Amino acid sequence: MIIKIINSILILAAVFMGFKQGWAMISGKPEIAEMFGKWGFDKTGLMINGAVTVLASVLILFPKTFVWGNFLMAADILLIICFHLL
Fold first, then answer.
1. CA-CA distance, 15 to 66, in Å (whole number)?
2. Cβ neighbours for 37, distance < 8 A, ≥ 6 positions apart
3. Sign for the pseudo-dihedral over CA of 13, 52, 32, 29
4. Considering the entire predicted model, what is its pTM?
5. pLDDT band of 78, cuts 50, 70, 90
């Protein structure tokens, strides 16, 4: 029982953080736009990346798409890490 509660809290935290970051990308917050602008992302590219992040966070909520949502979220994080390493 306690494991299910902990799992639910962790899933909701991941969804909240993913949605928050995705929405920041979609709305074009200056900090996010500046960071991605250094890597050559224009406003459209930033909006697409934000939409993928929001989609990934929503997919995490459903058991049948949980793995795909995590895969997309991990790919997005890996993309950001790779750009930072450049």
1. 11
2. none
3. negative
4. 0.86
5. very high
Whether 58 has a pLDDT exceeding 90, the answer reads yes
**What is residue 11's three-state secondary structure?**
helix
Cα four-point dihedral sign 36, 39, 40, 44: negative
Structure tokens at 9: 């809290």
Which amino acid type is present at position 8? Answer: S
- Model pLDDT for residues 17-54, shown as the tens digit of each residue: 999 999 999 998 888 888 888 888 889 989 999 999 99
Q: Which of 55, 58, 49 is nearest to 77 (CA)?
A: 49
Type of residue found at 6: I
50: left (phi over 0), alpha (psi -120 to 50) or beta: alpha
Dig out the tokens for 11 from the structure. 């899933």
| Number of C-beta neighbours around residue 35 at 10 A | 16
